[in-house]
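Q: Could you fold this chain for me?
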Amino acid sequence: MLIVCPNCKTRLGFDEQKVCAVEIKLRCGKCRALFKVVRKSLKPSPLPPPMPPAHGSGTGIKVVVAHESAAFCSAVKKVLAPEPFDVFSCNDGKEALAAIERLLPDTVLLDVSLPSMYGFEVCEAVRKNPAMSSVKLILIASIYDKTRYKRSPSSLYGADDYIEKHHIPDSLAATIYRLVAGQEPADSHVGDNPPIEEEGEAVPPRLSARETADQESTRREFQRDEEPVILSSVTPPAPELTAAHVKARRLARIIVSDIALYNQATVEEGIRNGNFYRLLADDVHEGRALYERRVPEEIRSCTSYLKEAFEELISKKKRELSLQRT
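A: Sure. Below is the predicted structure, expressed as structure tokens.
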């Protein structure tokens, strides 16, 4: 059927057979406005044979959440709990790729800065495998900052969409429904006899006070997950120091992976021509400033986590571009 975005009036194609819910939230693929779709009537259709459950508890859309932080994965599971989703989580890039191959989920939420394999590397691997062509991929822009980015990524590395952390509580479920249902702008397909539009209506969503509070609570969880471990002036015990180093290393990887997400063409040009740091000087400077603000001096003075993360990205991209040339 066709639905109409209440914000920009774009007609959007929607495959109603892929989603059973009478009422769902969607995000417009053109203006990215969030709205609710209410189907006036459901036509009976033959039910497909039940799929045997893998490791999830429900029987709906299969979603894999891949993020290094177990706390982040738990927060996302809480966001998606009201939906008919089977949610699986993993904390490593190679583990995520193996889970996608094994489960063939409907949708995967991938952190860009996954350890062992960046999220965009997982995307590229999935897109090279025809057996996984139906899997929808969503990249997470890693750094939690509502004002940081004023532009969309220059490339999604084969992913179907991206989402910034602060939009996960209010937009993730809608994005999953949109991708699984195959929603796409349909203005170009409308001719002299456009499809009937009265099967559904777009209604701007109204959140209850409880829903609004829950969303803000989840956003605070995401922010806390990125906060640095503050070291005291007294030498801390080993576990605290280890936690601080792990968090600093993760932040370095997050900064570098976000630069790669938002500047793919420039990153590849800089690596090909040997002027990576000059071409990306503004982004690198901003990343270093953020790293210095969030990582205590005691750690920065004895480590090179950010430099190592940049060099790891450059090394991986050199190998990738070399393989592409051959």
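A (continued): Confidence is low (pLDDT under 50) at residues 47-59, 146-151, 185-201, 229-235.
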